[in-house]
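Batch 3, record 17
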Amino acid sequence: MTLLGDVDERQLIEDFRSFIKPEGRVGPGDDAAITLDGTVVTTDIVTFDRHFPAGMTYEQFGWYAAAVNFSDLAAMGARPTGFLAALALPSTLEVQAAYDIMSGIDQCAEFCGTGIVGGDTKRGPGIVAGTALGTMDDRKPMLRSGAVPGDIVAVTGPIGGPAAALTAIDHGIESEEARDSLYMPIPKMEEGVALSATGAVSSCMDLSDGLGTALNTLCKSSGVGMDIELEFIPREDYVEEISEETGVPVRDLLFDCGGEYELLFTADRGMLRKIYDAEVPFHIIGMVDDSGFPELLADGKRSRIGNGRY
Amino acid sequence: MTLLGDVDERQLIEDFRSFIKPEGRVGPGDDAAITLDGTVVTTDIVTFDRHFPAGMTYEQFGWYAAAVNFSDLAAMGARPTGFLAALALPSTLEVQAAYDIMSGIDQCAEFCGTGIVGGDTKRGPGIVAGTALGTMDDRKPMLRSGAVPGDIVAVTGPIGGPAAALTAIDHGIESEEARDSLYMPIPKMEEGVALSATGAVSSCMDLSDGLGTALNTLCKSSGVGMDIELEFIPREDYVEEISEETGVPVRDLLFDCGGEYELLFTADRGMLRKIYDAEVPFHIIGMVDDSGFPELLADGKRSRIGNGRY
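Prediction for the assembled complex:
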């Protein structure tokens, strides 16, 4: 008799994919699914237990619950068309807190150019199951499976903020900037839509499971390898500072922690001009090769990049 | 300081509707929402705590979690295009049980002509947040707000099974038929699609909150009243039998309990031929009037129909 507690959660999600039917035009295995009639859709659960660090407000928790879903749409390049919020909240919660959660969801949906279209509320331990809906209009969805050797590897913005924030909290260091990146992640909606419109992107995913895991996933899904330059990876000053103050290596902060909401993508180097023309900010961090896995180049040494801790 | 435990759950859902934006073409207040680009979508949470009566299997629980969502699509007349399953399950649960839940969801989705397109799995207390997607094709959605005086009031099939099952369980009576209606409710997908295609239906909703509550909701949403004939309401023999054996009045079994998955609808009496032609089974149980609330005619007496206990 095997209990759920004995198996890796990501393995379970992999195994459950056997249930997913070719009803969807896209998925399983991508950030979101696309149904036969073209609706892009994704669902993600966040819980008080696991996604509610000390100091976070209920409004921020609501924002976070919506943002993780919208980020999955962004990774495909979808434009949001609606959000559903299914809440299971404790009877001992203040009513005001429940409103604050809904308000945070609402603000994030509005930021993403859409709104709450429906939901459900039940008693429970503090869970928000969000569902984000979107459309590709006439763009092609960005998948995880299209990278080819010779493509550039890039991210849309600085990495390491959430990891730095958690490390700072662990060490009792105050860092408002770091905390904001953890508590109110910004889904890269406009960037995703603009990137998919260029036609230059060969693969894309969000960084919600961390850069290390994302690089491994793209390599596996595309059947490629990558060389990543540590020095190329963009990061805020406070990431370096918190690394120095705490002794946690910058590399760990950049690769090992989830909760990032920049996009990771690969693109045909001959078509980079189209991405510049689209005015999407991005930073090249490496190149796709045929080695089969991601490797890091740092201080003249080469090492394998592992999955991060979630 | 007001706690969630102090407020009625349905009141909270009502209050949260203030967050729902005119992003949706339909809703809030209907069984499902319709986004601006025409996707029909609904989300419902079921929990081990509340929706897992003694003797139910994990597979049946999965079926049930999907069925409550598909039933909301059926009430609008939507054709299902996909299902998302977000699971929060205890670490102490057997892995096989988790597969059984997914398998039950999968079977229900297949029964409804679609499949699982995506999902999420986290640790939690035993919660399935399902999302069902659908399309109206070129049919008009059936809403709760279109009933007018003179319309007939009808249901698609027998009522009272789940209430009879719960009553039988409470009294230690074995009744397999009753139990099946409780554990494996059949969403009325084909009936919903066919009814919406007739153009004769003026309002519709499902009976998941029970007949009493549904009649009150249709009256309120449409601004009408109704006269319902107790003897007209179709019921299986075992409902009468369990009523006799336990002393619980038939009226209570028919009106007070949720978990029903027949459809309740009103229709223009001049267009009934279209519903007969569509070969949807239905039973007229009363008439719409302008009294403002639903009343029951039984044994020559008239009485107000209240909301059921959920």
